[in-house]
Amino acid sequence: MNKLYPDAATALEGLLFDGMQICAGGFGLCGIAEGLIDAIRDSGVKDLVIASNNAGIDGEGLGKLLRSRQVKKMISSYVGENKEFERQYLSGELEVEFCPQGTLAERCRAGGAGIPGFYTKTGVGTQVADGKEVKVFDGQEYILERGIFADLAIIKGWKADETGNVIFRKTARNFNQPMATAAKICIAEVEEVVPAGSLDPDSIHLPGIYVKRMIVGASNDKKIEFRTVRQREAA
Fold first, then answer.
1. Which H or E run includes 106?
2. pLDDT at 225 over 80
């Protein structure tokens, strides 16, 4: 089975539809599937529900889909660097389900493992718990969180073999690994594809059984999400 497609648009053929849910790996601008995001934008699909740690920044990453008004709802943890996100949320154009970062990762992991829900102490006594079932275990309150299982996962890997086994590079591993399992179809955008058998089995982060389609995305310009510099000391 050939999993490698010539480009992002071809890899997405037959998968996109209005109102679909997408799990998008990445943390800020690190480890995001830029080519696939661009192809989703160009497709014109709308009313998307996207689970992602954040929504990129203005005009970059998932911020492109916000700017083109293709996103109906975001399930996110951190959104502080995106002014367009803030504007759409405050104006009522965008639904937002805020989710603690660790809870979001576990919701995706649970969804990929076939677990429909789990109990956690995170968020107890806060707005995060509003409307959620509460149970007491060993005298402590826990809230029920639902697992996430989407229609499509788009992830970014560093290196993959022809069968879809993927290695992530350093912090780009972030949400990509659990989100890859939390969808009916996973497309991996990787920087390099090597022959089957070339990768050390002990170094593989994501088994190829989870990856249905792949594209090669060139190493994109590494944009800096938030630049912090220190003052030079006087000579």
1. helix 101-112
2. no
CATH of 8-216, one of 3.30.160.670, 3.90.1150.10, 3.40.1080.10, 1.20.120.1220: 3.40.1080.10
Residue position matching structure tokens 């879809």: 164
Helices (H), ranges, 147-225: 176-181
Report d(CA 89, CA 75) in Å as an integer.
Answer: 12
pLDDT at 29 exceeding the cut of 90: no
As given in the structure block, the two tokens for residue 99 are 């989710």
Question: Looking at the whole model, is its pTM more than 0.70?
Answer: yes
- The half-sphere exposure of 59 on its side-chain side, counting CA atoms within 13 A, is 1
Please state, in angstroms and as integers, the Cα–Cα distance from residue 234 to each residue in 144, 228, 230, following that order: 56, 19, 12
Using one digit for the tens of pLDDT, what is the confidence trace for 184-203? 999 999 999 999 999 999 99
